[in-house]
Amino acid sequence: LHAQCLQRLQSPRMDLCHVPATREKGWYLALMAPNVKGPNYAWLDPSRLYCHPQGLQDCVADLLQPFQGDAIDMVAGIDAMGFILGAAAAATLQKGFLAIRKAGHLCVQTVAQPYSDYSGREKVMEVRTDAISPGLRILLVDQWVETGGTMRAAIELVERLGGVVAAPLCAPTGVAAICMENSEGGKWIQERYKCSHCVPPRLQPRFDQHQ
């Protein structure tokens, strides 16, 4: 393993071994890769972070830290990149995982919700109707909250089925993402739900401006 790590350190490929001596919250954000393909793509690619064992572990731990002691019955992740962090969070919490899908993929009875994503495209997401019972406390996880449209649609689906995303009087669960931008939609969510993200306050303006 040591030899493999040395080879990776000397290679132009991703370094999956290096861990900083001091692991402050958000240290792993530097592992994310900038867009090199132009305006039709997201400005940043977090998937490189998931390839780093310690980076992924620390990211999930930071996302879950604000919910320690909260009663969470299930974790739900949003199609598609929210599946990665959501499933990792569910495994850490030893809870079940529910996939909230883009429309057209589920062969069972579903409830659907239209929404506009961060690029302004009109889409529809859906969730199976048999997984959420009234009062079930859900932690919603996605990779990123930019305009908030996708997360708001997921919240709507959960609440339409009787699930609880935030209940201030009874151990709230809520919303988690690597970054929650201070957009109008992002602020709407943060004002109404218990939220967790990984971006330190000093870096938040850079993330809001996609720098």
What features would you describe in this structure?
The chain is an alpha/beta fold and 211 residues long. It has a single domain, classed as 3-Layer(aba) Sandwich (Rossmann fold), CATH 3.40.50. It is 29% helix and 23% strand. It is built from seven helices and nine strands, in the order αββααβαββββαβαβα. The chain has helices spanning 2-9, 47-50, 53-64, 82-93, 149-160, 184-192, 204-208; strands at 33-34, 44-45, 74-78, 96-102, 110-116, 122-128, 138-145, 174-180, 194-196. Strands 5-6-4-3-7-8-9 form a seven-stranded mixed beta sheet, with helices on both faces. The model has no long low-confidence stretch (mean pLDDT 91).
In short:
The protein contains 7 helices and 9 strands; from the N terminus they run αββααβαββββαβαβα. The protein is α/β, with parallel strands linked by helices. The chain has one domain: 3-Layer(aba) Sandwich (Rossmann fold).
Name the features.
211 residues, alpha/beta, Rossmann fold, two-stranded antiparallel sheet, 7 helices, 29% helix
Count of DSSP E strands? 9
CATH topology call? Rossmann fold
Mean model confidence by pLDDT: 91
How can the largest sheet be summarized? 7 strands, mixed
- Category by helix and strand content: alpha/beta
User: Low-confidence parts lasting 5 or more residues at pLDDT below 50?
Assistant: none
Q: What count of domains describes the coordinates? A: 1
Task: Sum up the overall morphology in one term.
Answer: globular
Query: What order do the SSEs take from the amino end to the carboxyl end, as H and E?
Result: HEEHHEHEEEEHEHEH
Share in β-strands: 15-25%
- Radius of gyration, in angstroms, nearest whole number: 18 Å
In percent, how helical is the residue content?
A: 25-40%
Strand order of the largest sheet: 5-6-4-3-7-8-9
- End-to-end span in angstroms? 36 Å
Number of helical regions = 7
The CATH class: Alpha Beta
CATH architecture: 3-Layer(aba) Sandwich
